[in-house]
DNA sequence: CCTCCACTGGAAGATCGGGAAG
DNA sequence: CTTCCCGATCTTCCAGTGGAGG
C-alpha cells in the first residue's frame, strides 16, 4: 500500500512542483540578485492556507541552492517561534551559531549582534506564519541586517503590516508580493496524483477517489494530502491492497480532527479547562465563562490572563470569538 | 442626545523558574 | 550554597469601543 510515507507528510517538499510555475518564476527572479552576492529585497507570499506558499518558498530556495555555489537558508515557523528571542534563536541555529546560547543568562542583545556579525554566504530566511509574531519589530531588525534575504509568508497581507510602523511598512509594500489563490479542483487532483504516484503502490487509489478527496478539501492542498495520508494509513492497517470508498469517508473527519488534537495538546491544563467550559456550553458569554473558570480551578488566574488564553486558542483555530464588546460570545470551532 | 457598563486588548511592571557565576 | 540575569508568564492599570437604557 504505502511505498514512501514521507511523500504524504505535510512538510514534504517535492523536487518537482506540479503547479505554481508562475509563482516560482517570480520568486526565483526576486532572489536572483543573490546569485551575484547582491542584496535581495524581501519577498512577501500571501494567500489562504494550503495553497502552496510554504512549499513553493522551500522548493524555490532548494532549487536555487543547486545552482548557486554558496547559499544558506533557514525555515522559521513563527507560529512555534513566535517571540523575538525564539525567532532569532532559530535563525542563528540555521547557521550553527546558536549552539552555545541558552535561554538564560545570555546578555540581552547578543543574538541580534551575532547575526549582524555574520559575513558568510547569502542567507535566505523564510518566516512562515509571520503574522503570528507577537512583536513585529523583529522584522525591522532583520530587514536592517545585511546579508539576509527575507521571505515572509502569511495568510493575509494586512494583518502583517497592521502594526508595523509606517516607514517599515512602506519598505515592505514596495517589495515583491506574490499572491497564492486556492487550487482549482483539477489542480488539486493532479497534486494528489503526483503524491500517490511516489508515495503509494500503483492502483492503490483511483482518480475518482482522488477527485472525491480534492472536492472535500475545497482548494486546500494540506487538507487534501492529510486525508490521503490518513486513508492510506488506515487501509494499510486493515491489510487492504486498495483504498476503498468507505476508508476515504472515514478519513475525512479523522484527518481534520487530527490537526485539532495536535493543537489541543499544546494547551496547558488551565487552558484546557477554559476550552472545556466553552465546549460544554456550546456558546458562552465572557463573564459567565470567567465565573465558571473560577469555580473549577483552585487558584484562578486573573480575567486578563484568561483573555490571553482565549487569544491563544483563537490563534490555534480551536475557538471562535463572535461579536464585539457586549455582544461577544465564544464557541468552539466545529 | 448622554451616561453607564461589559468587554477588549495594549502597556508596563511583578513574579516565576532555571542556568551560570561566584 | 547564594546571587544575578534571562525569557516567559501573569497581574495591574487603563483607554477605547459600542450597545442598552435613560
Describe the structure.
There is one protein chain. Strand 3 (123-128), helix 5 and strand 4 form a beta-alpha-beta unit. The longest helix has 21 residues, at 245-265. The chain has helices at residues 21-31, 53-67, 84-94, 110-116, 137-143, 157-161, 166-173, 185-199, 207-217, 221-237, 245-265, 269-281, 286-296, 303-315; strands at residues 43-46, 72-77, 123-128, 148-154, 176-179, 283-284, 319-322, 329-332. The protein is globular, with a radius of gyration of 22 Å. Helix 10 (221-237) crosses helix 11 (245-265). It contains 14 helices and 8 strands. It has 334 residues and is of the alpha/beta class. The protein has 3 domains: 20-179, 3-Layer(aba) Sandwich (Rossmann fold), CATH 3.40.50; 185-259, Helicase, Ruva Protein, domain 3; 266-332, Winged helix-like DNA-binding domain superfamily/Winged helix DNA-binding domain (Arc Repressor Mutant, subunit A, Orthogonal Bundle), CATH 1.10.10.10. The mean pLDDT is 89. The strands form 2 sheets. A 5-stranded parallel beta sheet has the order 2-3-4-1-5, with helices on both faces. The chain binds a DNA duplex (22 and 22 nucleotides) through helix 3 and helix 14.
Amino acid at each position: 500500500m504505502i511505498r514512501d510515507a514521507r511523500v504524504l507528510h505535510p512538510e514534504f517538499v517535492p523536487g518537482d512542483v506540479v503547479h505554481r510555475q508562475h509563482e516560482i518564476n517570480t520568486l526565483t527572479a526576486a532572489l536572483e540578485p543573490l546569485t551575484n552576492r547582491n542584496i535581495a529585497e524581501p519577498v512577501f507570499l500571501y494567500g489562504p492556507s494550503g495553497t502552496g506558499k510554504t512549499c513553493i518558498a522551500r522548493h524555490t530556495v532548494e532549487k536555487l541552492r543547486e545552482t548557486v555555489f554558496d547559499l544558506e537558508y533557514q525555515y522559521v515557523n513563527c507560529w512555534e517561534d513566535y517571540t523575538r528571542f525564539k525567532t532569532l534563536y532559530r535563525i542563528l541555529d540555521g547557521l550553527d551559531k546558536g549552539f552555545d546560547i541558552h535561554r538564560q543568562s545570555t546578555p540581552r542583545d547578543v543574538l541580534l549582534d551575532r547575526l549582524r556579525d555574520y559575513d558568510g554566504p547569502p542567507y535566505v530566511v523564510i518566516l512562515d506564519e509571520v503574522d503570528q509574531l507577537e512583536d513585529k519589530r523583529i522584522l525591522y531588525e532583520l530587514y536592517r541586517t545585511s546579508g539576509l534575504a527575507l521571505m515572509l509568508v502569511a495568510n493575509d497581507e494586512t494583518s502583517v503590516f497592521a502594526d508595523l510602523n509606517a516607514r517599515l511598512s512602506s519598505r515592505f509594500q514596495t517589495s515583491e508580493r506574490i499572491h497564492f489563490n486556492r487550487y482549482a479542483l483539477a489542480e488539486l487532483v493532479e497534486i494528489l496524483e503526483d503524491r500517490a504516484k511516489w508515495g503509494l503502490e500503483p492502483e492503490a487509489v483511483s482518480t475518482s477517489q482522488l477527485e472525491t478527496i480534492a472536492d472535500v478539501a475545497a482548494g486546500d492542498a494540506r487538507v487534501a494530502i492529510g486525508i490521503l495520508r490518513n486513508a492510506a494509513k488506515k487501509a494499510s492497517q486493515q491489510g487492504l491492497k486498495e483504498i476503498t470508498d468507505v476508508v476515504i469517508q472515514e478519513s475525512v473527519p479523522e484527518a481534520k480532527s487530527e490537526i485539532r488534537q495536535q493543537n489541543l495538546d499544546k494547551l496547558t491544563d488551565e487552558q484546557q479547562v477554559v476550552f472545556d467550559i466553552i465546549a460544554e456550553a456550546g456558546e458562552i458569554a465572557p463573564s459567565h465563562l470567567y465565573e465558571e473558570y473560577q469555580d473549577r480551578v483552585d487558584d484562578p488566574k486573573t480575567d486578563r490572563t484568561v483573555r490571553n488564553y482565549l487569544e491563544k486558542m483563537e490563534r490555534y483555530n480551536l475557538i471562535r470569538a463572535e461579536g464585539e464588546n457586549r455582544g461577544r460570545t465564544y464557541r468552539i470551532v466545529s
